[in-house]
Amino acid sequence: MGINTKLLHDYPVVDPYTGASSIPKYQTSTFSQQHLSDPDQDFTYTRFGNPTIEALEKAFCSLEDSTYALSYASGMAAISNVLMLLKSGDHIILPIEVYGGTCQFSTCVLPQYGIDVSFVDMSSIEKIEKEITPETKMIYIETPSNPLLKVTDIKKVCDLAKAHDLLVVADNTFMTSLYQQPLKLGVDIVVESITKFINGHSDVLGGLVATNNKDIYEKLQLFQKNFGGILGVEDAWLTLRGMKTLGLRMKQSINNAEQIADFLSTHKNIKTVYYPTLRTHTGSEIHQQQAKSGGAVLSFELVSEDKIDVFLEKLTLPILAVSLGGVESILSHPATMSHACLCDEERAAQGVSNTLFRLSCGIEDAEDLLADLAQALEI
Ligand SMILES: Cc1ncc(COP(=O)(O)O)c(C=O)c1O
After folding, report:
1. Name one GO cellular component term (predicted).
2. Which CATH number fits domain 247-376: 3.40.309.10, 3.90.1150.10, 2.60.120.380, 1.10.3540.10?
3. Quick check: 171 and 144 in contact, CB under 8 A?
4. In terms of CATH architecture, what is 3-243?
5. For 30, what's the count of Cα atoms within 13 Å in the CB-facing half-sphere?
6. Which of 3, 74, 104, 311 is least surrounded by CB atoms within 10 angstroms?
């Protein structure tokens, strides 16, 4: 079944209770019980299960090609639940440029539970291997990374992890499983912020976890119930609706990103373009082996800082904001947004300069985005 058909048919799309052709919003916290302890009653309390949320989780299993999937109130709720699989005394290895929220959770929360954390440059397998200790239990990857789209070889990390009996977790938010399938490459757990491409309309916060490992699923199910960070019913419904066009949206956004990356690559006012399928991009060969496209996010540096204000004043279509993956193009300035909490030296070490911008391409017409960028770059 092709992906667009899957997104419309390969999970409960018709309500089993009423026949409604859109799964209704079962906006209820509790469910009336006819008998005490009725084993045939599907739902009792929404934190333990709800028909709208269950339909979405089945849709995630189809999307991710996974046996199990869980939904959460945000990408961070999904990620923090997964990281809490670690126990006191354990050690985890993460990318230096891991998403800011994951970095904060790993540096401010995990150590409180006796969990040791290392950050490494994940473009080098040798560097990852050097960090492994007898206490290491998990390697966490994010590829391509934010905001410089650095590439990690998923299969090589998984081979290394298997040799040391470690779990591998992949944040697949940028590519989604439509364009990169980490579970198929040996990753144990995939996490994604559904706030981004999966819902795609910048109107929901949510997260998902997908795995084929029953033991991990059951532990996470217990955590989900007890930490309580479930996805709200309304947001589950909005995501079910948004997801149906994921294939079409991503195709258009990626097409825009490819054209914009090419256009910016030769522009006199652009110093560097970061986009994983550009021939000049480090790791582009690895990326093309493990992913089906460069995705819809690219970053670029202006030639000088004194051009920033005019560029932003002249640009009309992309909204200036944090986040990515919406139908509208979103321009972010990492130095003052996602990476503002780092000091100048830390930002420099990660390659985040003041002239760096990240563009999440929306589904506007390519010619309009290109014309807008062209006129804004006449500075
Ligand atoms: C790569 C990545 N992972 C995780 C998250 C966290 O997702 P959320 O904001 O839904 O908690 C983000 C948010 O920007 C992200 O970019």
Report:
1. cytoplasm
2. 3.90.1150.10
3. no
4. 3-Layer(aba) Sandwich (3.40)
5. 3
6. 104
Atom 7, ligand 1: residue with shortest CA distance: 75
For the chain, the structural domain boundaries read: 3-243, 247-376
CB 128 within 8 A of CB 156: no
Mean pLDDT of 77-97: 97
* Common-topology check for domains 3-243 and 247-376: no
76 lines ligand 1 (CB under 6 A): yes
pLDDT band at 343 (very low <50, low <70, confident <90, very high): confident
pLDDT digits over 210-239, tens only? 999 999 999 999 999 999 999 999 999 999
Q: Does ligand 1 come within 6 angstroms of the Cβ of 207? A: yes
